[in-house]
Amino acid sequence: MSFLLTINQSNVVPNSNNSTYTYSFPSTAVFNNHELAIQSISMYYSWMNISQALGNNVFSYSWTVGVTTTTYTIIIPDGLYELADLNNLLQFNMIKNGTYLINATSQNVYYAEFLVNATSYKFQINTFPVPTSLPSGYTAPVANIPAGYSAFPGYPTTTQNPVVTIPASFNNIMGFASGFATASNVGVGTNLTYNSTVTPQIQPSPNALVACQIVSNKYASPSSVIYSVVPDVELAGLIKSAPNEYAWCDINKGNYNNLTIQFLSSSTFSPLQLLDSNLTILVLIREKPEKNDVMNVSKMLR
Q1: What is the pLDDT of residues 265-286, one digit of tens each?
Q2: Of 167, 195, 223, which residue constitutes the final position of a domain?
Q3: What is the pTM of this model?
Q4: Interatomic CA distance for residues 86 and 84, integer angstroms
């Protein structure tokens, strides 16, 4: 005897960040000699890589006016980011803080940036010397400043580069040591480039572990893990995951009113934060085949 359960967004547990789904059996299910496997999972690649809960959502840069240096802390909103998104966020904050100039062709000029160095498989931080006065043909954002934005704060007494600081946890995203800071380069007037020193982990959870509370896989840690979903699509793309062969896991003997599926981080085993609850999970449950049945099937396959 076997049966198929369909779990979807109607089963999401409130306030679980879309990580947990509970299927209620129509009546109490008695499992004495049963096993479970995932038939397929369709879900969107939407688990966050940067959030307050992960503790990796902060970095900063500095700007010097005269001899006074101000540090601007950037709080990254919870979400799913590529490095280009983080660069856009850095430059958006530079606009809000007024720490940029506008060149003769009306393009914004920023004095720090994040880039992907694809040839070396690294992330790159570039900083550029801030001039001590307005360059020819440039303008500074001092007029018609929108509410909530700041005008240009001023120039340093001596040419120097902004200092970008990469604190703990965010450093893993970027591939730099915890607390890494670029140099101020005072009085030198040159561009500076820094490449990550370890492999960047832009996604701390490259795959999502699937756990089920009624299963005990004694050789796994956590013992409730039954499957792994690997995103083979772009951000927000639809993942269609189905095993070539079912991995049957023993169900703990007992009476159950429900079955809970949870998505866990592959690095911390903590619940993932999913931005999209629109998914479909197909779960197979069957009575364990008798030993003779398994042997007969094995013979047929020879």
Answers
A1: 998 999 999 999 999 999 999 9
A2: 195
A3: 0.85
A4: 5
